[in-house]
Design a protein that fits this description.
The chain has seven helices and eleven strands. A six-stranded parallel beta sheet has the order 8-7-6-10-9-11, with helices on both faces. A five-stranded mixed beta sheet has the order 1-3-4-5-2, with helices on one face. Helix 2 packs parallel to helix 3 and helix 2 runs parallel beside helix 7.
Length: 244
Amino acid sequence: MYHFFVEPHQIGAEEIRIEGADVNHIRNVLRMKPGEEILISSREGGDYFCRVEELEPEYVSAKILEEWENKELPARIHLFQGLPKGDKMELIIQKAVELGVSRIVPLAMEHSVVRYDGEKAAKKCQRWQKIAESAAKQSKRDIIPQIAEVSAIDKLMAECDCTTKIIAYECEDRQGLKQVLQSNLNTDSILIIIGPEGGISDAEIESFTNAGAEACVLGSNILRASTAGPVALSLLARALGRFI
């Protein structure tokens, strides 16, 4: 079943109006006809099982047949990901969206090898957002997670209002993620911080902990930068009751 996202104002009591680029995709690429069934999600949450009614040049209208239960995690998860090398960020975003992340912030960290700024950073962010939207549609998410601009640490931590903040840190004397979560399962928002290939510096750890973040390990093995985020999100989703 094809899946589309709309703004809340496009959703009526009995009908949803699809506008913008999706109209051309529905009419001229998918060549859909009245009577076909589709899934429509509000960008602010909410799923609707619908039937296509009208296909006009400027819009497609769909009748709401049923409103489906919210599938999102009970806590909003924010992933602060240290910039990895090459195209690894694309895979991280794809898997993180599939696993239920709400927002991803690419972090320019002390040990990051790659650096993005200006026009290059803007183009990367646009591409990453498209990957997030595609992954959200494929995995039938209720929302399209936001991909923020490439950012520095200090400002972000000062502005972050997540009630639970966690740093994945490969230090043997730290407690595991499971132990940290046991006392935080009723939280409504979780921040997970993952470093780049070179790891997180001592100064960055101090900055994170001073902002209220708690360091923990994800397991006995050292994970790649592109693996740690999806693993942490899988553990979080399971702890929040969404995975067996």
